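Record passed on here:
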Amino acid sequence: MQDTKIEGNIVADYYIGPTHIMVSDAYYRDKTKEEIDRIWDRVTQIAWNIVLSERAKGRTDI
């Protein structure tokens, strides 16, 4: 197992099969509410673009 320096606080820690996943708040911890809101707005737009693109290809399961 590789030791990796983790910045921030671990906010989630779980396993998927043999893979150990630790989620850190390092990216968000020093951001303002407005900065975080802009990030989530961008994430939402990207996700919707993916959904609309897949629906345009005929997928109905998303």
In short: The first helix runs from residue 33 to 56. The mean pLDDT is 93. DSSP finds one helix and two strands in the chain.
